[in-house]
Amino acid sequence: MTKHIGVFVTGGIAAYKVPGIVRDLIRAGHEVRVAMTASAATFVTESTLATVSQHPVLTDAAELAAPEQVGHVALARWCDLAVVVPATANTLAKLACGLADNVVTTTLLAFNGPKLLVPAMNDGMWRNPQTQANVAHLKDWGFHVLQPATGFLAEGHSGVGRMPDPAVIAAFIATVQDEAFLAGRRVLVTAGGTRERLDPVRYMTNDSSGKMGTALANVAAAAGATVTLVTTATLPVLPEVAVVPVVSAEEMATAVLGAFAQTDVAIMAAAVSDYRPKQAADAKLKKNGPAGLTLALAQTQDILKTLGERRTHQFVVGFAAETDHLLAHAQAKLLAKGADLLVANQVGGGRGFNADDNAVTLLAPGQQPEPLPAAAKVEVAAAILRRIEASL
Ligand code: CTP
Predict the structure, then answer these.
(1) Catalytic residue among 102, 112, 122, 206
(2) How distant, in Å, are the alpha carbons of 264, 291, 341 from that of 390?
């Protein structure tokens, strides 16, 4: 869904990365307008941000450029969502006090919609109890705050305070939720296609990208859940998501079964290989010539089915990726796996695997199939999670 996104730039060194973030938002189909403080303008130019956003930038000097409308009031009316990136310690402190002394703080005070903060600063400034108290205060007021990353800081040492990767910021913006509808829930998600090793240089796998499962994990975290993501993919995740990287079906089964007791909702979105080579060769397999090669395969554990059998209090959700007879195959899987909900997913012909959009139908025992409108995977993830929450 196209949004009007206000990007508010304050004066930290990470401001030099903002033009790339603006461009990514526009590429994702959003409209962007930028406001910046005088100190931000010492790190990134107004003309760069005007060019990438395709609109004039609101600065203190431009506040009354069109006297018939006050700049910060007009921008606050235009925005659906406001992102402060980078948010300096100084701006966090001003926002926590409700100060309005420049175009960024005045617009944010006038704006009633969702406000996202991407703090980036020196590690000492971030850890300072005054900054932490300001952040806690802002969260109480409903600001969404992205935890800074740990890594190499502009000062030349490693610490917490680094601006997260643009891809993580994009995930933060895309998955923000109006309400913490999963607060207090523990959600376990699997994502990606497993890899089953044949020899030291080869493996069997499938086309799953992990985008749907990762979107579910990010949206669940944004909705306040405690999230564990068992995944073969390396896609951007919110800092709150606990990632357990795995490769094979066996590793995935061990990780999922180990976490299941402490789970309220288990969503198995991964494309798990049904078979693995009986024996992974220690040395590279040699060509067998025209006689061909026959691989001996052993069946892997069906993780979802095992969860269906072992569940106590957990709500168990499966996916069914099908190229044909979608609903018939999916209904059969719902019963065979003992799931509470099955997300049926047509794949093939450019749909399902690896795409950014998805169209799914939800199946629950004894209920009519419920098709969801085709939408971006994060929107589909939010719809699935709301449906799950309604059933808990
Ligand atoms: N699944 C699983 N463990 C497996 C295979 C599948 O947990 N070894 C889960 C998937 O994560 C998904 C659901 O079962 O939630 C359905 O997966 P799918 O590959 O569509 O179905 P299969 O059970 O493998 O059946 P088939 O391959 O015959 O379609």
Answers:
(1) 206
(2) 13, 57, 12
Domains, the chain: 4-175 (3.40.50.1950), 186-391 (3.40.50.10300)
- Which of 229, 256, 274, 310 to probe ligand 1 with, by most ligand atoms within 8 A of CB? 274
DSSP string, 152-208: E-TTSSEEEEEPPPHHHHHHHHHH--SS-TTTT-EEEEEESB--EEEETTEEE--S-
Interval between CA 302 and ligand 1 midpoint (Å):
7
- pTM of the entire structure? 0.96
Asked about 128 being catalytic, the answer comes back as no
Ligand 1 touching residue 333 (CB < 6 A)? yes
The CA distances from residue 66 to 61, 73, 77, 104, 229, in Å, are 11, 12, 15, 18, 49
Ligand 1 centre and the CA of 303: distance in Å? 8
Tens digit of pLDDT for each residue in 142-187? 999 999 999 988 888 899 999 999 999 999 999 999 999 999 999 9
304 ligand 1 Cβ < 6 A? yes
pLDDT digits (tens, 9 = 90+) for 274-289: 999 999 999 999 988 8
Q: Which pair of tokens denotes residue 281?
A: 């060769």
